[in-house]
Amino acid sequence: MxxxxxxxxxxxxxxxxxxxxxxxxxxFQKLLDLHPLSDGESGPMNSLERRVSDVLDLPEAIKIxxxxxxxxxxxxxxxxxxxxPVSIENRALIIQxxxxxxxxxxSREGDVTAVYFLTGQNQDINTVGNPRFVIEDExxxxxxxxxxxxxxxxxSVCPKPGRCIIFxxxxxxxxxxxxxxPDRMPHMQIVANFKFDNLPDPEDEV
Length: 206
Ligand SMILES: [Fe+2]
Fold this sequence. Notes:
By secondary structure, the protein is an alpha+beta fold. It has helices at residues 21-34, 62-76, 78-83; strands spanning 13-16, 51-53, 86-95, 101-104, 112-117, 133-136, 154-157, 163-168, 173-175, 187-196. Helix content is 17%, strand content 26%. The model has no long low-confidence stretch (mean pLDDT 92). Fe (ii) ion (FE2) binds at residues 104, 106, 173, 191. This is 2-oxoglutarate-Fe(II)-dependent oxygenase superfamily protein. It comes from Roseibium algae.
């Protein structure tokens, strides 16, 4: 009987900062005030129109920024201190009704990506939310055959206020279309791409 070993399983990190619900609401409102929404007749905003750069510099984001830094440091463990200094490209995304994000990676912007949700549902992390955020298995395209014992090609993340998900920036991810409620309020999330100056390269040690 052959033993079973796992091949190339990367790590996804997450943290639920439930105590930041009020901060999420304050920042949500600030972004609504700052950023005009599409009128709905011309469709959802495109990827540039829905972006608010340097969102973590806003006073409403002070605690959220602290939490994201702590979560990413915890995810990286000992490699955090070894890899500093770091620059953090960050933005808010304002997703209106029918807005979605096609599969892509953030590897040009960072080494490690954190996505922090300002809105969503109070559900377990690996459930289908609105919108459904998916971290894909980078070994298999969605249309490739998988063996009966292999799991699905992606890990679904349910957005929830204060939920932070962390993954290597090279890993492809996407977001299914968001459906707004009767109040037409958008979904919002923060993307923070961490680019390290001194990230150790394991190949150097071979
Ligand atoms: Fe992304």
